[in-house]
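Why do we care about 3D structure at all? Because function follows from shape, and shape follows, mostly, from sequence. That is the central idea of this module. The next example makes it concrete: a single protein chain, its amino acid sequence, and then its structure expressed as tokens.
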Amino acid sequence: LNQTRFSQLSRGLSTARQLRICGLLLLPWLLAIWGFWGCPGLPLGDGKIPVLITLEVGLLVILLADLFRLLRPEPSRTATVAPVAALNRLTTWLLSTLVAPLEEFFVRKGAKFALTLLAFLLVFKLGEAFLGRMSIVFYKDIGYSNSDIATYSKLLTWWATVLFAIPCALLNARFGVFKGLFISGCAMAASNLMFAWIAVVGPDVHLLTAAVLVDGFTQSWSTIAFVSFVSTLCHQSFSATQYTLFAAVGNFGRTTIAANSGFLVDSLNGNWAVFFVLTCLMVIPGLVLLTLLRKRL
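And the structure:
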């Protein structure tokens, strides 16, 4: 139905307007490819990535604002001629593939609820991301050897995450999507305090083992709960595109915002205990947003 509607819509648009719509929808992908190849022609050295991210975000805002204007029907349009039939098909495909899932989500949930939901996805696992970014630096700074880091931080964490997956899935099924997400978020934040304990005590291998096991359990549970929660938000007709959108919003917070974790440590003069306490508190905005969304969920 959406494809039929967008097909009728594209046939009612001028060729120039269709070309602008296709350009707006394809430009972010071209910009991402340009960034993948190292942003050739952008003489900014190590500062390329922040500039590229700013360009991407700004472009997406302009894209959405301009799309609403371009998709308005034109007053006096003549019938589409044969030479632009391929352009009609391209415009229809891009609109039904990229615009329709977003339109369906915002219409079904409402703009206010949808934006609150996206904000929650952005900040929910931010504290865990800050911890993960600085974990290796912390281990070396506190005095653990490279073999300790390889054994406990890498190998043991992987096995803990895998082995805890099934019991965490059963726990999440027992509590339900909302309660499971809320409790796992609290547990995930509380587990960060064990690393604050290590920062105070020093390089204790037994304490590191306990911290890694607890962190692996909470990471497994919060990930399973997060995936379950995101899956319930998707419409059956657009599940792949909408899930990708939600996952991308969450990953943006974990990869981009958490990239400032080093600046936070420096501003604290290397006080790791305070840093991990702050990563624990970072879950509060996400839990508040989740509580606000509870009635609709």
